[in-house]
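U., I forgot to send this yesterday:
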Amino acid sequence: MKTLLLLYMLLVRSLCGCAQSREQSRPAGGACEGCEAVYEYGKRTLNAVDTLPDFEEKGPAMKISGTIYHADGKTPAKDVILYIYHTDQQGYYSTRGHETGWAKRHGYIRGWIKTGADGKYTFYTLKPAPYPGRNNPAHIHPVIKEPGVQEYWIDEYLFDDDPILTPGERKRQEQRGGNGILKLTKDPQGLLIATRDIVLGKNIPGY
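Result:
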């Protein structure tokens, strides 16, 4: 009985500690539905490179990399988690049937990256398709979780050569975290390559 009581007390203390840690994060960014998915990496050890589950499937393979900086735009930011997710080659957030949490809505094509001291990040994936029958350009959703600050969304990764990315759509971008419109090039093997640097707190309300 004493052993069970001790285990219960340790569990409660652990849960309270996690909640307290989340509450102590400084609010920023405003409403962010689904941003808590940034914590859904389970027991994975995160590092500066991730390969999303669709990368070995058929489609335009792509490598996106960059550096995440502190608010000064110069100092690399360490221990920042970048969560990304996007549609499949038909424009759907497809699932495989065993998803839990936000994966039920975000689908299986998602990943998590954690920066090192140099602030750099890289992820490999397929270029997503736009929503079927809609005027939304193809995009990748990003969420940022930096130490001591509540998770927040930044501008989507968009593609400069996308015919759906109209001048009006370009103007509507809020530049949260900086410019999210990617200019794609190809390496000799045909891999699409793009770079996006991110500045923490840039154009983020309440930061």
